[in-house]
Design goal:
alpha+beta; 6-stranded mixed sheet; 5-stranded antiparallel sheet; 15 strands; about 20% helix
């Protein structure tokens, strides 16, 4: 009996020592890995909202182990101009896309003046990812009024600024992305439609940039979702 107790204690201490060496396990459904001394350590896996593996990174060796295939064209700065190109590694947030969109959806709010004036529409924001993996040069396109564009920009900047750098044939490139946020209002059970303007509208011209999935933020008039 004493020998069995000793064996159990040794197994427990061995497991405890192993956990301490690796760090604290994080497994929240969209990312899995260990945190040691406040930093990510070892192999981390990132999943999308459906549970599909998107990204694997070994933080100890700073190496990319896996990235979900993407054969679409991106916009990169090459030979002094922005051009379309397929890439070996596309620019993307270093983390789960589920986390990325959760941050946007959980933090965006309908600006008060837009809410009261029944301002609805789609705001677009372009931004660049440089060769150091940092996003910047944010620009608002199609500001619909009521500070909606600035609100979406505020929330977009809450995303941790860690990005994969666009790569092709072993070379890194600056890239440009474009994301949207639809602001909508439901009144009396029906979605409000944008009012038709009397003057002839100038077609919306968006910059040459890779469009990524956007979000929608719909409220019921007179109801504060927060």
């Amino acid at each position: 009996m004493e020998n069995k107790k000793l064996i159990f204690i040794l197994i427990f201490l061995g497991s405890f020592a192993s956990v301490c060496a690796q760090g604290q396990l994080v497994n929240n459904g969209y990312e899995k890995g260990y945190v040691k001394n406040g930093f990510k350590s070892g192999l981390w896996q990132y999943y999308d909202s459906t549970g599909i593996l998107e990204l694997e990174i070994d933080y100890t060796s700073s190496t990319l182990k896996y990235i979900i295939p993407d054969t679409s064209e991106y916009i990169i700065f090459e030979n002094g101009e922005w051009v379309k190109s397929k890439l070996d590694i596309p620019p993307r947030y270093i983390g789960s896309s589920k986390e990325f969109y959760n941050i946007l959806k959980e933090n965006v709010d309908y600006p008060m003046q837009a809410r009261y004036r029944d301002i609805i529409g789609v705001v677009w924001i372009s931004f660049e990812v440089d060769t150091s993996g940092k996003a910047g040069n944010y620009q608002i396109h199609n500001e619909i009024g009521g500070e909606c564009g600035y609100e979406f920009l505020r929330v977009l900047k809450l995303i941790p600024n860690y990005w994969m750098v666009a790569q092709k044939n072993g070379k890194q490139y600056q890239s440009k992305l474009l994301i949207s946020c639809e602001f909508g209002i439901i009144m009396d059970g029906k979605r409000l439609k944008e009012r038709k303007k009397k003057k002839k509208e100038i077609p919306l011209e968006l910059p040459l940039a890779k469009k990524i999935d956007g979000i929608s933020y719909i409220i019921k008039k007179g109801y504060n979702p927060k």
